[in-house]
Design brief:
26% strand; 8-stranded antiparallel beta sheet; alpha+beta; 22% helix; 5 helices; 210 residues; two-stranded antiparallel sheet
Length: 210
């Protein structure tokens, strides 16, 4: 989510247009044990656990960020009642500048950057893209570091899925759609994180159960 889920390397080092998505390695309907196993095998540690959601945080010290104050990327997977994955969200930190300055979006929210997407009692919400779209429109553009991160992450979603189905005018959020999936990219909270969401559409779930 935000999206370079397979790579924990510093996203300020390269802004190449191609990058892996979480769904490349973990398509929907993967068993919970297999989702956990993939993360542990690829340098992630389990952090918070809810009945329907697991959270993983990058703990591979072989790929440190250039700015050591940048927090590690973290991700969540949500499961259906049968323990199969139906949604993913990846939280990619926006790096601070090399001089130590951290760009912020002041006055946007007093809540944590994940509050739109995470119920702290139950894990990931349903309808992640709808929740991201519900945030009020912004009147100013993104700060420089957020803009660079957004551009880097959105490029691959545009390449794969075409034009967004919805786009906040100042790049604070966008969504894409496929026949089976809804994808979102959002600036979280005060701008410390870019959140990428992938969710299996309800129509796809219905057809799979038929």
């Amino acid at each position: 989510m935000a999206g370079c889920h397979e790579q924990a390397s510093d996203t300020t080092q390269s802004f190449a247009p191609a990058r892996p998505l979480v769904t490349d390695a973990l398509p929907y309907q993967v068993a919970r044990a297999d989702v956990r196993g993939w993360h542990v095998h690829n340098g992630w540690c389990i952090r918070r656990v809810w009945p329907t959601t697991d959270e993983f945080v990058v703990c591979d010290q072989l790929h440190p960020y250039m700015n050591l104050h940048t927090p590690p990327m973290y991700a969540m997977a949500k499961y259906d009642p049968n323990g199969k994955s139906i949604a993913y969200a990846t939280f990619t930190p926006v790096p601070c500048r090399m001089n130590g300055q951290c760009d912020r979006i002041y006055g946007r929210t007093v809540y944590a950057s994940e509050h739109e997407f995470v119920d702290h009692f139950n894990g990931l919400y349903d309808h992640l893209a709808n929740r991201g779209r519900a945030e009020k429109p912004e009147l100013v553009g993104l700060p420089p570091m957020q803009e660079r991160m957004w551009t880097a992450l959105a490029a691959e979603l545009d390449r794969r899925f075409g034009q967004p189905t919805w786009h906040e005018p100042h790049d604070y959020g966008a969504t894409w759609a496929t026949p089976t999936s809804t994808i979102g990219l959002f600036v979280g909270g005060s701008g410390k994180w870019i959140v990428e969401t992938h969710e299996l559409r309800a129509t796809a779930l219905s057809s799979q159960s038929d």
